[in-house]
Task: structure prediction
Amino acid sequence: MKLLGKDCEVDPHVPEPLPLKKFMVYIGPAMMTTALGLGTSELILYPRLTAEFGTGWIGMMVLSLVFQTVWAQQMARWTVLTGEHGVKFNSRVISRIGALVSITFFMFIGFAIPAWASVAATALMEIVHWPASVETGTVFWSYVSFLLVFAVIFLSKVARSWIERMATAATLLAWGLLIAAAVTTIKSATVADMARHVVLWDIPDKMNWWVLGSTLAWVGGGPTLLWYTYWMKDAGWGMACKFGAIPGGLGKSIKLRSEGLFPEFTPVNIYRLKVWIRRSNAVLWGAYFVGSLMTILIVVGLSDTLLRPKGLVPNGFEVIKHQAVFFREPLGAAGAVLFLVMAWLFFFNNQMAISEAVVRQNADATVNFLGLTNIKKVYFSWWGVYLVISFALIALQYFGGKINPFSFVTYSAMLTLVSLVVSVLATLIGQVVLYRAFPRELRPGWVSMALLAAGFVFYVYIVIRALAAFFGGKA
Result:
């Protein structure tokens, strides 16, 4: 088989789809991604925008979520068919160096910012009120949270295993609590406004496009959907079951395959691949999209009902403090504490998933680029680099000013938006170029191509508006 001028290995056997009772194989990667969306933007950026500007922008969020789900769907298709993750797929279009610079590098510098350990620290500060200084306490509890993150990875046999379980449990718990709060709290007038604004957008003239751009970039996890395909690959979806999983600190060193295995297109293989693809689509739309959409509507509704009338705008070192009112209203003082505990767990889990994914992508890129074989050694070497950089950035918060948990989140979002824009375009081109060697029934349809093209234009527009706001002093 020839693909972009490269000889690709053909495997005559496509693995039979695993039984549905292998629950975590199917749902685990999606729940990790959904949890990232809930922690990266839903509990931070949505309340900020709603408290300050109302619900007129919610239609843009829904549209962005549709674009991102389609994007993830098409990268996941490639993972099922070849065993390669999304960045490898994109590199077949924009070259290995192009992907390394425009995707891997920007994802690394964006997520090397320890935003979620810092936000988790602000939640702990609200509970324990120690140390007395906000800046000192944020730095101290950020370090504690980050060291716990590394401990979980180091004590695992498979790097992602405990993160996957914790993300699933935390997401289900959060959904249950948010639904209870929504049913008892959100006003009917807010529901009517949101329903109208899903279709008829109402963006205020004073809208902060830097924050809005960050929010649109990270609706449902945004660029972290690239990592969904890494975790799919690890979990053994489709052809990826022959590739192996990155070991944790207690796991054995293995040699991971990076180059794709392209299936022989026999009737049995095509049938099995179609089943894998259907299940991949069902998980993305049924778990990721529906779960993320539900969270958007609930958090925006709670913010409009509770935060906006009181003028409580999350910002700076109080990025998560005001949201405790979500549970205080229906559950009293204990509800506020419960929210803060849940928030800490969520942001701790997010920092863990983000850290593992950043290190994983850099280890994978290093092994592929330099032709190394010991993935475990490379993986933990990158952990050392990541810890040093993150610990230095955490310390900067001690000096206050514009270096605080909320600014960390927006800077991280806008840096990684570069990766999202490049990857969406590369995925679109890949649909046209790379699938020529595949039977028609395995190729993506024209609807997904049209949506990816529209998504690319949408995100380029967001980048332009956000940069104009930032350099115009309106961020």
Remarks:
- The chain has a mean pLDDT of 85.
- The first strand starts at residue 2 and ends at 3.
- Residues 153 and 392 are 21 Å apart (CA to CA).
